[in-house]
């Protein structure tokens, strides 16, 4: 069973990412945020653990970590509300997604044959960078309040700021920059530069290598 699921690890992880990002387009907002989103976060974690399941020690470490966190925080572990111990919850997510993103990039990079699975992994890795940008920006906003300003951030509550920072993370990763959110502190500005550069490096290096492998194998 696990072996079969592992063959579709990238599809499962990408599916949960897309639903987390765009589920509110297809479901009523209150139902999505209060009921569906915690379920999707749980499935995303399960899919991430599946991705690192070849590394048994690391896999069991994160299983134990999330079980402890779930017991400690209950349903609040997957909530977007600030609540108590938000820094701990955020740190758990952040570390987990760093490990999973690096594992995705490693598996895509080391793939000898470029097939549908590798392409989906490539897409999932890029979306994962946006999640990492979101966790980075949200961490900065918690530890140094008002690091981000603009019409979407001023006078907004925590849940609204979190939603808007998710949007800002992907706008920065894509180097679009509409200007509704502006990093106003030095650490926020450096973080924005880091996210933008990381997105470009991914496209220029990781994607280029995969495309080169695909062309080379298809010509053979």
UniProtKB/TrEMBL annotation:
Residue stretches spanning the membrane:
12-29, 35-52, 59-79, 85-105, 117-140, 165-184, 191-211
Name the chain's protein.
Potassium channel domain-containing protein
| Alphabetical list of InterPro entries matching this protein | K_chnl_dom
- Judging by the UniProt lineage, the source's domain of life is Bacteria
This protein's UniProt keywords: Membrane, Transmembrane, Transmembrane helix
Which intervals hold domain Potassium channel?
Answer: 163-213
Pfam families, per database record: Ion_trans_2
